[in-house]
Specification:
Blueprint (H helix, E strand, L loop, with lengths): L1 E4 L2 E3 L11 H5 L2 E9 L2 E2 L2 H15 L7 H13 L19 E12 L8 E12 L5 H6 L1 E7 L18 H12 L4 E5 L5 E4 L3 E6 L2 E4 L10 H12 L4 E3 L4 H5 L3 E6 L3 E8 L2 E2 L7 H14 L1
The protein binds N-(5'-phosphopyridoxyl)-D-alanine.
N-(5'-phosphopyridoxyl)-D-alanine binds next to α6 and β13.
Length: 295
Amino acid sequence: TVVNLDGKLVPPAKATISVFDRGFLYGDSVYEVVRTYRRRPFELDAHLARLARSAGRLGLEPAWDAPRTRRELLATLAAVPPEADPDPEAAPWNQGQLSLRVIMTRGAGELGLDPALAVEPRALVIASPLRAPPLAAYRAGVGCRIVGVRHEAPGAVDPGAKTGAHLANVLAVREARASGAHEALLLGAGGQVTEGASSNVFAVRAGALVTPPLGAGILAGVTRALVLELAREAGLPAREAPLLPADLAGAEELFLTSTAREILPVTSLDGRPAGGGRVGPVTTRLGALFRARAD
Ligand code: PDD
């Protein structure tokens, strides 16, 4: 792991932030997670654009602009030595790959919620080994649990912004993992499943791809957008429409998308077989198209 703190490479153990930093105190920060293929960042432009959008929604003036962020990210990546012992359980294309987390916080200041108290924004990059699901998970699929989240909770923020205020998602994953599920699927206020705690969700219904629209209160996933593009190019019918728990339970196929997971089949839901209980043909086809694009 290599850390770039405010433009300087520092040993991870020395990479520290003030206890008065608002990212720590209030989740007053935005972030992105970029991954590599063959040690090159994937979809970097889309991630940088989303980072700027997230910051804009919070009125957070980032310490680095997009060109500087790109330079710092590439410099951090270049400083990571090749992995000595790649994880044998990882899919071959994920072995030795990196996750690059870029964090922009509003910075430290006197205690108090008012963002004007922040003195100087900070920026950092953490380059660490990619933690992707094992190859077996892509072959067998994973389980998900539908979890109600407290949208009315103070601190619930614009789901379209990728902020450090992730507590609702943390608690949803806690609940999912307690039941042995890989991921939590979040139930929105209208009784619709919106997205995963750190992923987007797709179903195949009557042969067509369905995923909740951005207006449902979800993060505009970079992987989600790419999957929709690949479906369009392949002439696969796809639409953005609400998904109810029953729609998921009755779907022919289910999968999650995210930077680290790519396209990850879901074969059980709330402890029952779902998505046909196996990795379906549409998921397999999209997975192949995705691999061809990424690697
Ligand atoms: N999470 N929805 C939420 C709430 C997320 O946090 C993420 C990503 C996604 C998928 O977006 P993308 O395809 O751009 O990775 C959807 C990142 C990876 C994380 O928190 O680690």
